[in-house]
Design a protein that fits this description.
Structural class of chain A: alpha/beta
Strand content of chain B: 25-35%
Number of strands of chain A: 10
Number of domains of chain B: 1
CATH superfamily of chain B: ATPase, nucleotide binding domain
Order of helices and strands of chain A: EEEHEHHHEHEHEEHHEHEH
Number of strands of chain B: 10
Strand order of the largest sheet of chain A: 4-3-5-6
Distance between the termini of chain B: 12 Å
CATH architecture of chain B: 2-Layer Sandwich
Largest sheet of chain A: 4 strands, parallel
Largest interface: A-B, 19 and 19 residues
Oligomer: heterodimer
Largest sheet of chain B: 5 strands, mixed
Order of helices and strands of chain B: EEEEHEHEEEHHHEHEH
Radius of gyration of chain B: 17 Å
Number of domains of chain A: 1
Helix content of chain B: 25-40%
CATH class of chain B: Alpha Beta
Strand content of chain A: 15-25%
Helix content of chain A: 25-40%
Number of helices of chain B: 7
Shape of chain B: globular
Number of helices of chain A: 10
Protein backbone atom coordinates (compact mmCIF):
# COMPACT_ATOMS: atom_id res chain seq x y z
CA UNK A 1 0.00 0.00 0.00
CA UNK A 2 1.34 3.38 -0.92
CA UNK A 3 1.54 5.53 2.11
CA UNK A 4 4.24 7.94 1.25
CA UNK A 5 6.77 5.91 3.16
CA UNK A 6 4.90 6.38 6.40
CA UNK A 7 3.60 3.23 8.05
CA UNK A 8 0.91 5.10 10.00
CA UNK A 9 -2.28 5.33 7.96
CA UNK A 10 -3.52 8.16 10.13
CA UNK A 11 -0.54 10.26 9.15
CA UNK A 12 -1.62 13.33 7.27
CA UNK A 13 1.26 14.87 5.41
CA UNK A 14 -0.86 17.92 4.59
CA UNK A 15 -1.81 18.64 8.19
CA UNK A 16 -0.92 22.20 9.09
CA UNK A 17 0.60 22.75 5.69
CA UNK A 18 0.15 26.16 4.15
CA UNK A 19 0.22 26.45 0.40
CA UNK A 20 1.86 29.59 -0.90
CA UNK A 21 3.38 30.33 -4.24
CA UNK A 22 6.63 29.30 -2.64
CA UNK A 23 5.22 25.81 -2.17
CA UNK A 24 3.95 24.19 1.01
CA UNK A 25 5.04 25.78 4.25
CA UNK A 26 4.84 23.87 7.50
CA UNK A 27 2.46 25.10 10.16
CA UNK A 28 3.04 28.59 11.39
CA UNK A 29 6.33 29.17 9.66
CA UNK A 30 5.83 32.81 8.80
CA UNK A 31 8.95 33.28 6.71
CA UNK A 32 6.87 33.85 3.62
CA UNK A 33 5.09 36.68 5.36
CA UNK A 34 8.17 38.83 5.92
CA UNK A 35 7.40 42.49 5.55
CA UNK A 36 3.83 41.77 4.61
CA UNK A 37 2.89 45.42 4.95
CA UNK A 38 5.02 46.21 1.92
CA UNK A 39 3.28 43.76 -0.35
CA UNK A 40 -0.27 43.09 -1.42
CA UNK A 41 -1.62 40.12 0.51
CA UNK A 42 -3.98 38.31 -1.85
CA UNK A 43 -6.12 35.28 -1.14
CA UNK A 44 -7.12 33.05 -4.05
CA UNK A 45 -10.00 30.61 -4.23
CA UNK A 46 -9.85 28.06 -7.02
CA UNK A 47 -7.44 28.39 -9.91
CA UNK A 48 -7.36 31.92 -11.36
CA UNK A 49 -6.28 32.22 -15.01
CA UNK A 50 -2.65 32.59 -15.92
CA UNK A 51 -2.76 36.30 -16.70
CA UNK A 52 -4.19 37.10 -13.27
CA UNK A 53 -1.52 35.07 -11.53
CA UNK A 54 1.23 36.72 -13.61
CA UNK A 55 -0.10 40.12 -12.62
CA UNK A 56 0.14 39.13 -8.93
CA UNK A 57 3.70 37.88 -9.39
CA UNK A 58 4.67 41.19 -10.99
CA UNK A 59 3.25 43.02 -7.99
CA UNK A 60 5.30 40.72 -5.70
CA UNK A 61 2.07 39.83 -3.96
CA UNK A 62 1.98 37.30 -1.15
CA UNK A 63 -0.47 34.77 -2.55
CA UNK A 64 -2.39 32.57 -0.20
CA UNK A 65 -4.48 29.66 -1.48
CA UNK A 66 -7.52 29.77 0.76
CA UNK A 67 -8.47 26.27 -0.38
CA UNK A 68 -5.42 24.90 1.37
CA UNK A 69 -4.23 27.65 3.68
CA UNK A 70 -5.02 25.92 6.94
CA UNK A 71 -6.16 22.32 6.92
CA UNK A 72 -8.24 22.25 10.05
CA UNK A 73 -10.81 19.70 11.09
CA UNK A 74 -12.50 22.15 13.45
CA UNK A 75 -13.98 24.28 10.75
CA UNK A 76 -17.61 24.41 11.72
CA UNK A 77 -17.47 26.85 14.63
CA UNK A 78 -16.37 30.00 12.74
CA UNK A 79 -19.03 29.45 10.06
CA UNK A 80 -21.88 28.41 12.34
CA UNK A 81 -23.85 31.62 12.00
CA UNK A 82 -23.05 32.11 8.34
CA UNK A 83 -23.60 28.83 6.52
CA UNK A 84 -26.11 25.99 6.91
CA UNK A 85 -24.88 23.06 9.00
CA UNK A 86 -25.32 20.55 6.19
CA UNK A 87 -23.09 22.30 3.68
CA UNK A 88 -19.90 21.81 1.75
CA UNK A 89 -17.07 21.48 4.28
CA UNK A 90 -14.60 22.89 1.77
CA UNK A 91 -16.51 26.17 1.54
CA UNK A 92 -16.74 26.21 5.34
CA UNK A 93 -12.99 25.69 5.41
CA UNK A 94 -12.38 28.59 3.01
CA UNK A 95 -14.50 30.96 5.11
CA UNK A 96 -12.83 29.71 8.30
CA UNK A 97 -9.45 30.24 6.64
CA UNK A 98 -10.30 33.84 5.79
CA UNK A 99 -11.50 34.49 9.32
CA UNK A 100 -8.44 32.90 10.87
CA UNK A 101 -5.79 34.56 8.74
CA UNK A 102 -5.00 36.86 11.64
CA UNK A 103 -3.61 33.83 13.53
CA UNK A 104 -0.63 33.95 11.23
CA UNK A 105 0.26 37.59 11.70
CA UNK A 106 3.04 38.81 13.90
CA UNK A 107 3.00 41.67 16.38
CA UNK A 108 4.11 44.19 13.74
CA UNK A 109 0.73 44.09 12.12
CA UNK A 110 -1.38 43.49 15.18
CA UNK A 111 -2.65 47.05 15.04
CA UNK A 112 -4.65 46.21 11.94
CA UNK A 113 -6.03 43.17 13.71
CA UNK A 114 -6.96 45.18 16.80
CA UNK A 115 -9.06 47.56 14.80
CA UNK A 116 -10.88 44.60 13.35
CA UNK A 117 -9.57 44.68 9.81
CA UNK A 118 -8.75 41.45 8.06
CA UNK A 119 -5.20 41.76 6.71
CA UNK A 120 -6.09 40.22 3.37
CA UNK A 121 -6.15 43.10 0.92
CA UNK A 122 -7.99 41.29 -1.84
CA UNK A 123 -9.56 37.93 -2.56
CA UNK A 124 -9.63 36.61 -6.10
CA UNK A 125 -12.29 34.02 -6.68
CA UNK A 126 -12.34 31.89 -9.74
CA UNK A 127 -16.01 31.92 -10.63
CA UNK A 128 -16.19 30.21 -14.01
CA UNK A 129 -19.38 28.60 -15.26
CA UNK A 130 -17.91 25.12 -15.07
CA UNK A 131 -14.83 24.85 -12.97
CA UNK A 132 -13.81 23.85 -9.50
CA UNK A 133 -16.85 25.19 -7.71
CA UNK A 134 -19.93 27.14 -8.72
CA UNK A 135 -21.27 27.18 -5.17
CA UNK A 136 -18.53 29.47 -3.86
CA UNK A 137 -19.85 32.29 -6.03
CA UNK A 138 -22.96 32.48 -3.85
CA UNK A 139 -20.92 32.77 -0.68
CA UNK A 140 -18.69 35.44 -2.18
CA UNK A 141 -21.23 38.15 -1.28
CA UNK A 142 -20.58 37.40 2.37
CA UNK A 143 -16.85 38.00 1.89
CA UNK A 144 -17.47 41.31 0.18
CA UNK A 145 -20.32 42.69 2.28
CA UNK A 146 -19.58 41.41 5.76
CA UNK A 147 -15.80 41.11 5.83
CA UNK A 148 -15.30 44.22 3.69
CA UNK A 149 -12.56 42.53 1.69
CA UNK A 150 -12.12 43.60 -1.90
CA UNK A 151 -13.35 40.78 -4.10
CA UNK A 152 -12.44 40.11 -7.69
CA UNK A 153 -14.35 37.47 -9.64
CA UNK A 154 -12.33 36.01 -12.50
CA UNK A 155 -13.03 33.34 -15.08
CA UNK A 156 -10.49 30.74 -16.07
CA UNK A 157 -10.89 29.89 -19.73
CA UNK A 158 -7.36 28.54 -20.23
CA UNK A 159 -7.65 25.64 -22.67
CA UNK A 160 -4.07 24.72 -23.55
CA UNK A 161 -3.47 21.34 -21.92
CA UNK A 162 0.01 21.06 -20.43
CA UNK A 163 -0.02 17.29 -19.83
CA UNK A 164 -0.73 14.94 -16.95
CA UNK A 165 2.65 13.44 -16.10
CA UNK A 166 2.15 13.62 -12.33
CA UNK A 167 -1.35 12.14 -12.53
CA UNK A 168 -0.05 9.08 -14.37
CA UNK A 169 3.17 8.58 -12.42
CA UNK A 170 4.06 6.12 -9.68
CA UNK A 171 4.70 8.61 -6.90
CA UNK A 172 2.50 8.21 -3.79
CA UNK A 173 -0.97 9.68 -4.18
CA UNK A 174 -0.67 12.30 -1.43
CA UNK A 175 2.56 13.54 -3.01
CA UNK A 176 0.83 13.67 -6.37
CA UNK A 177 -1.74 16.09 -4.93
CA UNK A 178 0.99 18.27 -3.45
CA UNK A 179 3.06 18.30 -6.62
CA UNK A 180 0.04 19.14 -8.79
CA UNK A 181 -0.73 22.14 -6.58
CA UNK A 182 2.93 23.10 -6.72
CA UNK A 183 3.00 22.63 -10.49
CA UNK A 184 0.48 25.44 -10.84
CA UNK A 185 2.98 27.80 -9.23
CA UNK A 186 6.00 26.34 -11.04
CA UNK A 187 4.36 27.18 -14.34
CA UNK A 188 3.61 30.74 -13.26
CA UNK A 189 7.21 31.17 -12.19
CA UNK A 190 8.38 29.61 -15.46
CA UNK A 191 10.27 26.83 -13.74
CA UNK A 192 10.97 23.56 -15.53
CA UNK A 193 7.85 21.37 -15.29
CA UNK A 194 8.02 18.25 -13.17
CA UNK A 195 7.61 15.23 -15.46
CA UNK A 196 7.86 11.96 -13.55
CA UNK A 197 7.82 8.63 -15.40
CA UNK A 198 4.58 6.95 -16.46
CA UNK A 199 3.51 3.92 -14.47
CA UNK A 200 0.96 1.26 -15.43
CA UNK A 201 -2.09 1.85 -13.20
CA UNK A 202 -3.62 -0.55 -10.68
CA UNK A 203 -6.54 1.78 -9.99
CA UNK A 204 -7.62 5.40 -10.36
CA UNK A 205 -8.80 8.31 -8.26
CA UNK A 206 -11.26 10.68 -9.92
CA UNK A 207 -12.19 14.03 -8.40
CA UNK A 208 -11.01 17.11 -6.58
CA UNK A 209 -8.17 16.78 -4.09
CA UNK A 210 -9.54 15.42 -0.79
CA UNK A 211 -8.94 18.67 1.08
CA UNK A 212 -10.85 17.48 4.12
CA UNK A 213 -8.42 14.68 4.89
CA UNK A 214 -5.49 13.81 2.67
CA UNK A 215 -4.86 10.65 4.68
CA UNK A 216 -7.39 8.94 2.38
CA UNK A 217 -4.47 8.79 -0.09
CA UNK A 218 -2.64 6.35 2.15
CA UNK A 219 -5.08 3.57 1.27
CA UNK A 220 -4.26 3.74 -2.45
CA UNK A 221 -1.26 2.09 -4.08
CA UNK A 222 1.39 4.31 -5.66
CA UNK A 223 0.22 3.03 -9.06
CA UNK A 224 -2.94 5.15 -8.83
CA UNK A 225 -3.73 7.39 -11.78
CA UNK A 226 -5.60 10.63 -11.19
CA UNK A 227 -8.59 11.77 -13.27
CA UNK A 228 -11.27 14.42 -12.94
CA UNK A 229 -10.72 17.99 -11.81
CA UNK A 230 -7.30 17.35 -10.24
CA UNK A 231 -6.06 16.16 -13.63
CA UNK A 232 -7.47 19.35 -15.15
CA UNK A 233 -5.39 21.33 -12.66
CA UNK A 234 -2.17 19.59 -13.70
CA UNK A 235 -3.10 20.41 -17.30
CA UNK A 236 -3.68 24.01 -16.16
CA UNK A 237 -7.18 23.83 -17.66
CA UNK A 238 -9.45 23.73 -14.58
CA UNK A 239 -12.55 24.56 -16.65
CA UNK A 240 -12.00 21.75 -19.15
CA UNK A 241 -15.19 19.75 -18.60
CA UNK A 242 -14.45 17.38 -21.47
CA UNK A 243 -11.20 16.37 -19.78
CA UNK A 244 -12.87 16.19 -16.38
CA UNK A 245 -15.45 13.69 -17.68
CA UNK A 246 -12.79 11.22 -18.84
CA UNK A 247 -12.05 7.98 -17.01
CA UNK A 248 -10.36 4.69 -17.83
CA UNK A 249 -13.01 1.93 -17.94
CA UNK A 250 -10.35 -0.77 -17.67
CA UNK A 251 -9.16 0.07 -14.16
CA UNK A 252 -11.12 0.14 -10.88
CA UNK A 253 -11.87 3.76 -10.14
CA UNK A 254 -12.87 5.64 -7.01
CA UNK A 255 -15.05 8.63 -7.89
CA UNK A 256 -14.53 11.04 -5.03
CA UNK A 257 -16.30 14.24 -4.08
CA UNK A 258 -16.75 16.49 -1.11
CA UNK A 259 -20.14 15.86 0.54
CA UNK A 260 -22.79 18.47 -0.39
CA UNK A 261 -20.70 19.48 -3.43
CA UNK A 262 -22.48 19.89 -6.79
CA UNK A 263 -19.69 17.77 -8.29
CA UNK A 264 -21.04 14.86 -6.21
CA UNK A 265 -23.76 14.47 -8.85
CA UNK A 266 -21.14 14.11 -11.57
CA UNK A 267 -19.01 11.73 -9.50
CA UNK A 268 -21.97 9.55 -8.63
CA UNK A 269 -23.17 9.48 -12.25
CA UNK A 270 -19.75 8.55 -13.63
CA UNK A 271 -19.35 5.86 -10.97
CA UNK A 272 -22.60 4.31 -12.16
CA UNK A 273 -21.31 4.34 -15.75
CA UNK A 274 -17.91 2.85 -14.91
CA UNK A 275 -17.79 -0.97 -15.07
CA UNK A 276 -15.79 -1.04 -11.82
CA UNK A 277 -16.44 2.31 -10.21
CA UNK A 278 -17.47 3.39 -6.74
CA UNK A 279 -18.65 6.76 -5.48
CA UNK A 280 -17.17 7.96 -2.21
CA UNK A 281 -17.87 11.28 -0.54
CA UNK A 282 -16.32 12.85 2.52
CA UNK A 283 -17.64 15.61 4.76
CA UNK A 284 -15.31 17.17 7.33
CA UNK A 285 -12.90 14.27 7.57
CA UNK A 286 -12.39 10.60 6.87
CA UNK A 287 -14.64 8.21 8.83
CA UNK A 288 -14.02 4.56 9.68
CA UNK A 289 -16.97 3.57 7.49
CA UNK A 290 -15.54 5.42 4.49
CA UNK A 291 -12.17 3.75 4.98
CA UNK A 292 -13.84 0.35 5.25
CA UNK A 293 -15.90 0.96 2.11
CA UNK A 294 -12.83 2.13 0.19
CA UNK A 295 -10.51 -0.67 1.29
CA UNK A 296 -13.15 -3.33 0.61
CA UNK A 297 -13.57 -1.97 -2.91
CA UNK A 298 -9.82 -1.97 -3.54
CA UNK A 299 -9.39 -5.42 -2.00
CA UNK A 300 -12.28 -7.05 -3.88
CA UNK A 301 -10.85 -5.63 -7.11
CA UNK A 302 -7.44 -7.14 -6.27
CA UNK A 303 -5.84 -3.69 -6.16
CA UNK A 304 -4.40 -4.12 -2.67
CA UNK B 1 -13.60 -20.43 17.99
CA UNK B 2 -15.89 -17.59 18.98
CA UNK B 3 -16.89 -15.43 16.02
CA UNK B 4 -18.66 -12.11 16.41
CA UNK B 5 -20.60 -9.74 14.20
CA UNK B 6 -20.66 -6.59 16.33
CA UNK B 7 -23.22 -4.32 14.67
CA UNK B 8 -24.30 -0.93 15.91
CA UNK B 9 -27.19 -2.28 18.00
CA UNK B 10 -26.89 -6.09 18.08
CA UNK B 11 -24.07 -8.60 18.51
CA UNK B 12 -24.38 -11.89 16.66
CA UNK B 13 -22.16 -14.60 18.14
CA UNK B 14 -21.25 -18.01 16.71
CA UNK B 15 -19.42 -20.73 18.63
CA UNK B 16 -17.91 -22.84 15.82
CA UNK B 17 -17.37 -25.85 18.08
CA UNK B 18 -20.96 -26.16 19.33
CA UNK B 19 -22.59 -24.24 16.45
CA UNK B 20 -24.42 -22.26 19.12
CA UNK B 21 -25.73 -18.95 17.78
CA UNK B 22 -26.64 -16.05 20.05
CA UNK B 23 -27.98 -12.56 19.54
CA UNK B 24 -27.47 -9.91 22.22
CA UNK B 25 -27.74 -6.16 22.38
CA UNK B 26 -24.26 -4.64 22.08
CA UNK B 27 -24.95 -2.83 25.34
CA UNK B 28 -25.40 -6.24 27.04
CA UNK B 29 -21.98 -7.60 25.97
CA UNK B 30 -19.59 -7.86 28.89
CA UNK B 31 -16.79 -5.33 28.58
CA UNK B 32 -14.28 -8.16 28.93
CA UNK B 33 -15.85 -10.23 26.12
CA UNK B 34 -13.35 -10.97 23.35
CA UNK B 35 -14.13 -12.98 20.23
CA UNK B 36 -11.38 -14.70 18.26
CA UNK B 37 -12.34 -13.11 14.96
CA UNK B 38 -15.13 -10.75 14.02
CA UNK B 39 -16.58 -8.01 11.89
CA UNK B 40 -18.94 -5.06 12.29
CA UNK B 41 -19.01 -1.45 13.32
CA UNK B 42 -18.13 -2.13 16.96
CA UNK B 43 -15.70 -4.97 16.38
CA UNK B 44 -12.50 -3.29 17.56
CA UNK B 45 -13.97 -3.19 21.09
CA UNK B 46 -14.74 -6.90 21.26
CA UNK B 47 -12.42 -8.96 19.06
CA UNK B 48 -8.76 -9.79 18.73
CA UNK B 49 -8.88 -9.87 14.91
CA UNK B 50 -11.32 -8.44 12.44
CA UNK B 51 -12.32 -8.52 8.81
CA UNK B 52 -13.88 -5.70 6.78
CA UNK B 53 -17.69 -6.01 6.68
CA UNK B 54 -18.00 -5.93 2.91
CA UNK B 55 -15.28 -8.54 2.51
CA UNK B 56 -17.14 -10.70 5.05
CA UNK B 57 -20.37 -10.16 3.10
CA UNK B 58 -18.68 -11.10 -0.19
CA UNK B 59 -17.17 -14.24 1.39
CA UNK B 60 -20.55 -15.17 2.84
CA UNK B 61 -22.30 -14.69 -0.51
CA UNK B 62 -19.84 -16.92 -2.31
CA UNK B 63 -20.14 -19.55 0.38
CA UNK B 64 -23.91 -19.59 0.97
CA UNK B 65 -25.49 -18.68 -2.37
CA UNK B 66 -25.65 -21.42 -4.92
CA UNK B 67 -25.55 -19.10 -7.92
CA UNK B 68 -22.69 -17.41 -9.77
CA UNK B 69 -24.61 -14.20 -10.35
CA UNK B 70 -26.28 -12.58 -7.38
CA UNK B 71 -26.88 -9.41 -5.37
CA UNK B 72 -26.54 -9.75 -1.60
CA UNK B 73 -27.80 -6.87 0.54
CA UNK B 74 -27.24 -6.47 4.27
CA UNK B 75 -29.57 -3.96 5.94
CA UNK B 76 -28.64 -3.32 9.53
CA UNK B 77 -29.66 -0.78 12.10
CA UNK B 78 -27.06 1.80 11.13
CA UNK B 79 -26.16 1.15 7.52
CA UNK B 80 -26.74 -0.95 4.43
CA UNK B 81 -24.21 -2.60 2.19
CA UNK B 82 -24.27 -4.88 -0.80
CA UNK B 83 -22.08 -6.90 -3.12
CA UNK B 84 -22.81 -7.97 -6.68
CA UNK B 85 -21.21 -10.97 -8.34
CA UNK B 86 -21.57 -11.85 -12.00
CA UNK B 87 -20.36 -15.17 -13.37
CA UNK B 88 -18.56 -15.78 -10.09
CA UNK B 89 -16.63 -12.50 -10.27
CA UNK B 90 -17.03 -9.49 -8.00
CA UNK B 91 -18.39 -6.49 -9.93
CA UNK B 92 -19.87 -3.98 -7.47
CA UNK B 93 -20.17 -3.10 -3.84
CA UNK B 94 -21.40 -0.10 -1.94
CA UNK B 95 -22.05 0.96 1.60
CA UNK B 96 -24.25 3.78 2.77
CA UNK B 97 -22.71 5.10 5.91
CA UNK B 98 -23.88 8.51 7.00
CA UNK B 99 -26.50 10.02 4.67
CA UNK B 100 -29.16 7.46 3.88
CA UNK B 101 -28.34 5.52 6.99
CA UNK B 102 -29.79 4.77 10.42
CA UNK B 103 -32.94 3.47 8.75
CA UNK B 104 -33.07 0.15 10.61
CA UNK B 105 -32.57 1.83 13.97
CA UNK B 106 -35.16 4.48 13.10
CA UNK B 107 -37.77 1.83 12.25
CA UNK B 108 -37.19 0.06 15.55
CA UNK B 109 -37.44 3.29 17.54
CA UNK B 110 -40.51 4.34 15.57
CA UNK B 111 -42.27 1.00 16.07
CA UNK B 112 -41.72 1.18 19.82
CA UNK B 113 -42.71 4.84 20.05
CA UNK B 114 -45.91 4.52 18.00
CA UNK B 115 -46.67 1.07 19.45
CA UNK B 116 -46.86 -0.46 15.96
CA UNK B 117 -46.58 -4.22 15.49
CA UNK B 118 -45.11 -4.37 11.98
CA UNK B 119 -46.08 -8.03 11.53
CA UNK B 120 -49.74 -7.01 11.59
CA UNK B 121 -49.44 -4.16 9.10
CA UNK B 122 -50.13 -4.44 5.37
CA UNK B 123 -47.52 -3.10 2.90
CA UNK B 124 -48.31 0.29 1.39
CA UNK B 125 -48.12 1.36 -2.24
CA UNK B 126 -47.38 4.96 -1.35
CA UNK B 127 -44.02 5.64 0.18
CA UNK B 128 -42.02 8.26 2.03
CA UNK B 129 -38.69 9.05 0.42
CA UNK B 130 -36.29 8.20 3.21
CA UNK B 131 -33.08 10.18 2.80
CA UNK B 132 -32.07 8.96 6.24
CA UNK B 133 -33.72 7.46 9.30
CA UNK B 134 -33.98 10.77 11.12
CA UNK B 135 -35.61 12.66 8.24
CA UNK B 136 -37.88 9.66 7.63
CA UNK B 137 -39.10 9.75 11.22
CA UNK B 138 -39.81 13.46 10.87
CA UNK B 139 -42.06 12.74 7.86
CA UNK B 140 -43.89 9.98 9.75
CA UNK B 141 -44.61 12.30 12.70
CA UNK B 142 -45.88 14.94 10.26
CA UNK B 143 -48.23 12.41 8.66
CA UNK B 144 -49.53 11.22 12.01
CA UNK B 145 -50.11 14.83 13.04
CA UNK B 146 -51.99 15.28 9.76
CA UNK B 147 -54.43 12.49 10.63
CA UNK B 148 -52.90 9.42 8.98
CA UNK B 149 -52.90 6.27 11.13
CA UNK B 150 -49.47 5.59 12.72
CA UNK B 151 -49.39 2.06 11.20
CA UNK B 152 -49.96 3.45 7.70
CA UNK B 153 -47.39 6.22 8.09
CA UNK B 154 -44.77 3.80 9.41
CA UNK B 155 -45.53 1.33 6.60
CA UNK B 156 -45.04 4.10 4.05
CA UNK B 157 -41.62 4.80 5.54
CA UNK B 158 -40.75 1.12 5.33
CA UNK B 159 -41.87 1.09 1.69
CA UNK B 160 -39.62 4.14 1.14
CA UNK B 161 -36.68 2.33 2.72
CA UNK B 162 -37.34 -0.66 0.46
CA UNK B 163 -37.49 1.50 -2.69
CA UNK B 164 -34.30 3.21 -1.56
CA UNK B 165 -32.54 -0.15 -1.01
CA UNK B 166 -33.75 -1.41 -4.40
CA UNK B 167 -32.30 1.65 -6.14
CA UNK B 168 -29.15 1.49 -4.00
CA UNK B 169 -28.47 -2.05 -5.26
CA UNK B 170 -29.00 -0.89 -8.87
CA UNK B 171 -32.46 -2.44 -9.31
CA UNK B 172 -31.69 -6.16 -9.62
CA UNK B 173 -34.42 -8.70 -10.41
CA UNK B 174 -33.66 -10.61 -7.25
CA UNK B 175 -31.99 -9.67 -3.97
CA UNK B 176 -30.61 -11.96 -1.30
CA UNK B 177 -31.34 -10.18 1.96
CA UNK B 178 -29.61 -10.34 5.31
CA UNK B 179 -29.13 -8.12 8.36
CA UNK B 180 -31.33 -7.05 11.25
CA UNK B 181 -34.16 -5.80 9.06
CA UNK B 182 -34.86 -9.29 7.70
CA UNK B 183 -36.58 -9.86 11.06
CA UNK B 184 -39.19 -7.33 9.97
CA UNK B 185 -41.77 -9.14 7.84
CA UNK B 186 -43.30 -5.88 6.63
CA UNK B 187 -39.91 -4.87 5.25
CA UNK B 188 -39.62 -8.15 3.33
CA UNK B 189 -43.19 -7.85 1.98
CA UNK B 190 -42.59 -4.24 0.91
CA UNK B 191 -39.56 -4.95 -1.28
CA UNK B 192 -40.31 -4.15 -4.95
CA UNK B 193 -38.49 -7.20 -6.35
CA UNK B 194 -38.05 -10.90 -5.64
CA UNK B 195 -36.18 -11.50 -2.39
CA UNK B 196 -34.58 -14.49 -0.75
CA UNK B 197 -33.97 -14.10 2.95
CA UNK B 198 -30.80 -15.31 4.60
CA UNK B 199 -30.58 -15.23 8.37
CA UNK B 200 -28.87 -12.50 10.35
CA UNK B 201 -25.82 -14.72 11.00
CA UNK B 202 -24.84 -14.51 7.33
CA UNK B 203 -21.87 -12.19 7.88
CA UNK B 204 -20.46 -14.72 10.32
CA UNK B 205 -20.18 -17.26 7.48
CA UNK B 206 -17.84 -14.79 5.80
CA UNK B 207 -15.96 -14.29 9.05
CA UNK B 208 -15.64 -18.06 9.44
CA UNK B 209 -14.09 -18.39 6.00
CA UNK B 210 -11.57 -15.69 6.90
CA UNK B 211 -10.86 -17.29 10.29
CA UNK B 212 -10.18 -20.65 8.69
CA UNK B 213 -7.78 -19.04 6.21
CA UNK B 214 -5.71 -17.79 9.15
CA UNK B 215 -4.91 -21.34 10.29
Amino acid sequence: MGNGGNPDNNYNSMQDMVLTRHGFVKGKDKSFLKNPKDKPFVGIIGIPPKEVMEELIQESAVILSLDMYKVDQLITEPTENILPKAYCAQIKRIIANILSVTDYWNEDVMDSVLVGRNPISEIIIEDSEICRCNEMGFVADYIENELKIKLRRVKNNDIERKGDYICKSGIPLDEKFGKIAGYFYRDIERKKPFKPEYVKPKCAFWGTPPWGDFSISNYFPDETHIYGWTRCVENLTPGDLKLELEFDPDIPTVFFSQSFCPKAGLASYLASKHPRGIFIDMDIGLTRSTVAKLTAFLQLNNVI
Amino acid sequence: MILLDAGTTYAKILNTETDERTVKRISELEKTFRADVGTGHNISRFSKRSINEIIALANAGRSLINENTFTLLDVGSRDAKFVVFEGGNFVHSDWNTECGAFTGQALEILGNYLNVDYSKVEPQKEFITATCGLLGMGHVFDMVAGGIEPETAAARLIKGVCISMYRFTRKPKKIYLTGGLVQNSLFIKSMPCETITLDRFTLLEGVKEYALSLN
